[in-house]
Amino acid sequence: MKEYRFQVSGELSGERVDKALTALVDFLSRSYIQKQIKAGGVTIDGMPVKAGARVAEGDELTIYVPDSVQPDIKPEPIPLAILYEDEDVLVVNKPKGMVVHPAAGHYDGTLVNAVMYHCGDSLSGINGVLRPGIVHRIDKDTTGSVIICKNDAAHLSLAQQLKEHHVTRAYHAICHGIIEQETGVIDTLIGRDTKDRKKMAVQEVNGKRAVTHYRVLQRFDDYTYVECRLETGRTHQIRVHMASIGHPLLGDEVYGMRKCPFRLQGQTLHAKLLGFIHPRSGEYIETDAPLPEYFQHLLDIL
After folding, report:
1. What is the rounded distance in angstroms from the CA atom of residue 172 to the CA atom of residue 285?
2. Average model confidence (pLDDT) for the chain?
3. Which residues are catalytic?
4. Is the dihedral of CA 55, 57, 58, 62 positive or negative?
5. How far apart are CA 193 and CA 196, in angstroms?
């Protein structure tokens, strides 16, 4: 059983306890918090609270979270599009619709299931049984390059490179509208959307710095094909950033337009280039993931 304690600040004073905790705990959903309240797992100053209770400035909020039971993740013979592989790292071209690592509702059919079958016991264990070898991830409907670490030394090296922004990550995307300037830089803070905790948003104060460099590759009648290079790697960064300048990604139903003139499964976003310093040799390695068939077909139509 883990417990998380928070001191209520003035800006949350008067809020319902479930809403206040949702704002304070970014790794728990409001529905989960509400279940914990009903189960007596939330207290104010040591006393259990009821649903609908409100907090005041200075209150000590505590939520008790039962230890999770780790599911048994099984290897699965799912084909992998391998871009690079040696004894330390594996780079694959992830298809659309595939979740990177197991989570609630997705314990099979993930990239981890496929990698466990391909690599056997040769995966780093730093991220535990749910994310063996996973040092970074991309969204379910984003395609392209993902690097897998086969041992802890490689994992630590790549994690440090990511932290210091030394990994080359270039994405290709199709955006709504015509982007006039040839290149641009979007430099903002990104954090949880205060109105919808499942989304991210550009924040003026409460967020982490996010920097995206973009350049136009081709313009069409109502769309622009761009390359986006990440200087940082925040959740949904490209999707949030392009939407923030009025050019959401085609097919993005979360940050873009609900109605799409094409039959698409999620955003048109592809992790094309991935470059890193090899953790053992020190050599610079760069992979180039071919565009998926649907993406190339869409470009041909446009």
Report:
1. 19
2. 92
3. 139
4. positive
5. 5
